[in-house]
Amino acid sequence: MASDPDLWIRRYHPAPESKAQLVCFPHAGGSASFYFPVSAALTPAIDVAAVQYPGRQDRRAEPNVCSIPDLADAIFDAIRPLATRPLAFFGHSMGAILAYEVAVRLENSGAAPLARLYVSGRRAPSCQRQESVHQRSDQAIIAELEHLSGTSSDLLADPEALAMILPAIKSDYRAIETYRPLEARAVRAPVTAIIGAEDSRVTVDEAKAWHRYSTASFDLRVLPGGHFYLVDCRQEVIRLIAEDLVFQAARLGDVLR
Predict the structure, then answer these.
(1) 166 in a domain, yes or no?
(2) CATH number of the domain where residue 188 is located
(3) Which of 18, 31, 39, 93 is catalytic?
(4) Cα–Cα distance between 120 and 7 in angstroms, integer?
(5) Is residue 60 assigned to a domain?
(6) Total structural domains within the chain
């Protein structure tokens, strides 16, 4: 699988002079543009990049990848050149698992630990549930998307749009629902878990279980809302990231001077 950074990484508001970088990982069926508002809000203090998975938007002609390990391997290869500056990851839902898996691969390669790993809307890898959305009918999958409120209602009502996005959604659901970590591998980065208080996809205890995956520190934030709490709470999430990473970048600058 091609790992050219230009294929995998989107920068909507490049900030090459920033001392801090944030790489964002979309949810199942999601695309890099989901993080456009985050990029706009954090530039130029933080250089924000978003991962574009195959099979959607400008990569629609490429085959989908239905394996978390395969996706993580390819994303790691594309992201590895970014590790020359302080780096943080933010992943939502399936993206949280991918962010974690890529963080593990980065550390195993000898790179410095992330400044922070944000895992949003997802239970820890050790908290497995039996799920089979990817095996359901198209209408049942659409009903699931409507329940989660993560996909535009206009898209769900448009047959042509649905025909374009359903293959990627099914592939992503298959990837995350068949994901089985071999072991609990902790990273040396601090981990922050963020969930919606009414999210049926992750409980507070399942989010707390992420503490086992960091040898540094762990923090849990519970915000109002469901699985896509971060749409309505975007400003609070952006403020949290800015406070964490801008402070760390400033501190790094003090050390380097």
Answers:
(1) no
(2) 3.40.50.1820
(3) 93
(4) 24
(5) yes
(6) 1
Contact 99, 194 (CB under 8 A): no
User: Encoding tokens for residue 111?
Assistant: 């790179």
Q: With respect to residue 149, please indicate whether it lies within any of the assigned structural domains.
A: no
Find how far residue 219's CA is from the centre of its chain.
17
Residue 252's pLDDT is 45
Amino acid 167: pLDDT: 86
Residue 211 is which amino acid? H
Active site residue 93: yes
Torsions phi, psi for 186 (to 5 deg): -85, 145
Domain that holds residue 235: 5-127+184-256
User: Closest by alpha carbon to 209, among 119, 123, 84?
Assistant: 123
Amino acid at 191: V
Contact 22, 88 (CB under 8 A): yes
Q: Are 66 and 84 within 8 A, CB to CB?
A: no
Distance between CA atoms of 55 and 62, rounded to whole angstroms? Answer: 5
User: Is position 199 within any domain?
Assistant: yes
Beta bridge partners of 24: 50, 90
Model pTM score:
0.90
Residues of the chain scoring pLDDT < 70: 1-3, 132, 134-136, 138, 147-161, 163, 247-257
